[in-house]
Specification:
Elements (H helix, E strand, L loop, with lengths): L1 H21 L1 H4 L3 E6 L2 E6 H10 L4 H9 L4 H9 L2 E2 L2 H8 L2 H10 L3 E2 L6 H14 L3 E2 L1 H7 L4 E5 L3 H13 L2
Parallel strand pairs: 1-6
Antiparallel strand pairs: 1-2, 3-5, 4-6
Helix pairs in contact: 6-8, 7-8, 7-10, 8-9
């Protein structure tokens, strides 16, 4: 019985991943809204991607980084830091009690515009991010977030990265 459940779970996961990957371009985040204390700044995801790919900082991103006293290279490093993970192991972990708890904790920093269904949205973004190369980075999670807009509380990012590391790589 356990073997049958495991097989069905794997099939369900593969079908879900295919569905999510096929629909990724339609539902991917286009804009990220950074919240830092009382300061909010909206930015196209493409500008963050440009920073991570080339190191080039757009005028809007530069303004935000200066207002929050952030170093562009440090932000680039945090966004591109990759965590190695097996997608099937990750799926099992994300659907466990501890995985759901950590998803809820991370969702306090990275969440939907409505701040509802955060766990599902984050789980989807993480699974999609890991499905191609068994690696996950914050920029991939932001890019693969299944809403047009993703909200990020920047004052919690260091803690969130630590929680994400625990979730993906273990303590």
């Amino acid at each position: 019985m356990k073997k049958s459940y495991s097989f069905l779970h794997t099939i369900f996961f593969l079908i879900s991943s295919i569905f999510l990957l096929e629909n990724n371009s339609v539902n991917a985040a286009e804009k990220v809204v950074f919240n830092y204390k009382i300061f909010n700044q909206s930015l196209p995801v493409e500008e963050l991607k440009k920073l991570t790919d080339t190191g080039e900082v757009s005028p809007t991103l530069n303004y935000y980084l200066k207002k929050t006293n952030q170093d562009p290279q440090t932000v680039r490093d945090v966004l591109t830091e990759e965590l190695n993970v097996s997608t099937t192991t990750l799926d099992s972990t994300l659907n466990s009690k501890i995985g759901e708890f950590l998803l809820d904790q991370i969702s306090q920093t990275i969440h939907t515009p409505s701040n509802r269904e955060n766990r599902k949205a984050l789980r989807s973004a993480i699974i999609i991010s890991s499905s191609e190369d068994n690696k996950v980075s914050l920029i991939e999670i932001i890019q693969n977030y299944p809403t047009k807009e993703v909200h990020v509380k920047t004052d919690n990012l260091a803690r969130t990265y630590s929680q994400l590391s625990i979730l993906i790589e273990g303590p």
